[in-house]
Amino acid sequence: MSWVLEWLDRPATLRRAALASLVANIVIVGTGGLVRLTGSGLGCPTWPRCTDDSYVTTAEMGHHGLIEFGNRTLTSVVSIAAILALAAAWRQRRRLPSALRAGVGVLLGVAAQAVLGGITVRMALNPWTVMAHFLLSMVLIALAFALWDRTREEPPRWTAPRAMRAAGVLTTAVSAVVLVLGTIVTGSGPHSGDTKAARTGFDPESVSQLHTDAVMVLVGLSVAMWFGLRALGAPLRVTRAAAILVVVELAQGVIGFVQYFTGLPWYVVVLHMLGACLVWAATLNLLARVTTRSDQAPAKSEDHSLASTA
Fold it and tell me: Helix, strand or coil for residue 150?
């Protein structure tokens, strides 16, 4: 037993467990999208059982049951990653108290997501509960990112001017708006998860245009932040975070146009959903680079040379 505690006490264990939790929460968004896009949203028509008589899928449920049950099973992987990260954060709470708070948030979020998923099934994939299910995943990704970010070993944060910090918050807020509008587009489009599932009733063309407009604002803010950070002489790791966000946004834009003009094929829509997660993570990364935190892992000196040459 002592070797387990010793392993949990290692900073590398916490860092890797936090990263595993972040990756798992992104992957399950993709598998959840696969459930909806293949019409398998009611492959298991009840919850917490798959059918009235079985907790697992049956042959009668066919491939829809397998896909839906597979996504439910992945929840256990997300839960294990969250529990492991929380255990390591608890053991290292004196070194990184903020990591413990984030770890508790992740585990509670995973539990809430499981309950909301059950409510979504019992409400026959009501588009508003489906939207809430996706947006809660974005909250979970934010919490998992915060946990992982607090375990990263790096020099003390660069003190950005107040205007740049405000720009980072604004960019994050617009990114969140883009996510919300994206869920409305999805809830108004053809991929409902089941032929009997309702839609929001909004005109898909109109909400798609509104979503596109918000994306343009987000890209504009991100590019402006990149230019601004370079003009201020920010460290390389900070300007690189802005550049990564712009690149991910442009790649996501290309996928978005492809899915729109090719009639929303399911495999492109899955890529777009994963891309949304990456845009959100990149946004959070930029926000973290231009803001401060009260506690952090021990600093390394090697990045100071990067800061002086940026």
Answer: coil
The token duo for 280 is 């959100």
Residue 292's pLDDT is 64
The SS3 of residue 250 is helix
- Report for 27-36, 110-119, 193-202: range of highest mean pLDDT: 110-119
Which residue's entry shows tokens 């492991």? 84
Q: How many CB atoms lie within 10 A of CB 60?
A: 8
**CB of 52 closer than 8 Å to CB of 167:** no
Burial of 67: CB neighbours in 10 Å, binned 0-12, 13-18, 19+: buried
**Residue showing tokens 């995973």:** 110
Angle among Cα 282, 200, 268 to the nearest 5 degrees reads 45
SS3 of 151-217: CCCCCCCCCCCHHHHHHHHHHHHHHHHHHHHHHHHHHHCCCCCCCCCCCCCCCHHHHHHHHHHHHHH
